[in-house]
Amino acid sequence: MLPKRGIAHAVLLLCHAAHLAPRRDVADWVGAASAQGGFIAAATDLTAPAERLLAVGLAKQTKTIVLAPPLAGIASIANSATLRHIARVLLTYDAPSWLRIAVSPDGVSREYIPTNVLRDLEWLDPELDDILLDVVRSVSISRGTEFAKRIGDAAEAVILAALRADGRHPTHVAPISDTFGYDIECIGPPMLRVEVKGCSVNSRGTFHLSRNEYNKSLIYGDEWILTQVVFKSEAFVASVLKPAHIAGVFEVSARDVALVVPADTTEFVWTESAVITPLPTAWRPVSYSIADVTMPGLAR
Fold first, then answer.
1. What is the rounded average pLDDT of the residues 59-69?
2. Residues of the chain with pLDDT > 90: what percent?
3. Confidence at residue 49, expressed as pLDDT on a 0 to 100 scale
4. In what residue span(s) does the Protein NO VEIN C-terminal domain sit (predicted)?
5. Distance (Å, rounded) from C-alpha 182 to C-alpha 195?
6. What pLDDT score does 36 carry?
């Protein structure tokens, strides 16, 4: 639920109604909020926000409606500070799909926020960027991991479709086991073991590599290759993914990955994973074309 100013005000009315007296169900809750909010509340849809608060866990239905702690502590004063607090809570607990792409520790890239969404959030300026940065810091790691997996799965689907369209017969080994150390296998000759990474234009050239993936790259040598699918900003808010959403597909060899990975020493041991950035000159475009297929988008 995007925290437009009207939505934030609707949530404030619902919080106020829940504070005043127990509400036995959504209809009772919405009715009380409408009655307390005057003519503006009477003209506002409060049912949809109420149901969304229940859906995302910011309220729950027991014998009565119970607000979750982030909303239970909201003041009932309809001023700018309160509405901004509500916006912050909604962005945190109902995080939009573009959030982790548009916001990084380095700042906010507003070009990755859909234009209509940005327009709806302008009431939060000049604090909008600070709010988004705070929200991303507080969003749980699991949500980020889920979205990162969605990007990785989409990238693997892109490469699988491209290899099939190129007349090869790839096997998608990633769903079988993580122990392979790569995602796609093509029986040769030449044998090909492809580790696939998805990224945005901003993060192109850098990727997370697990220790197991790195170890397998050393074992398989030239058979192992890392392929990076670079998605355009529109891809992260699209419901359907098309070839036009892909800025390019590039690959780097196991040998070039190894060049930038330091060896373990008695003072330094790499365990689970690392962020790797091979030299820009190590990357080359893949030899095959992107297949003309559509697939589920990243904004789900």
1. 90
2. 50
3. 93
4. 161-231
5. 4
6. 76
For domain 145-296, the CATH architecture is 3-Layer(aba) Sandwich (3.40)
Six token digits for residue 130: 């600070």
What's the mean pLDDT when you consider all of the chain?
87
Q: Where exactly are the structural domains of the chain?
A: 5-138, 145-296
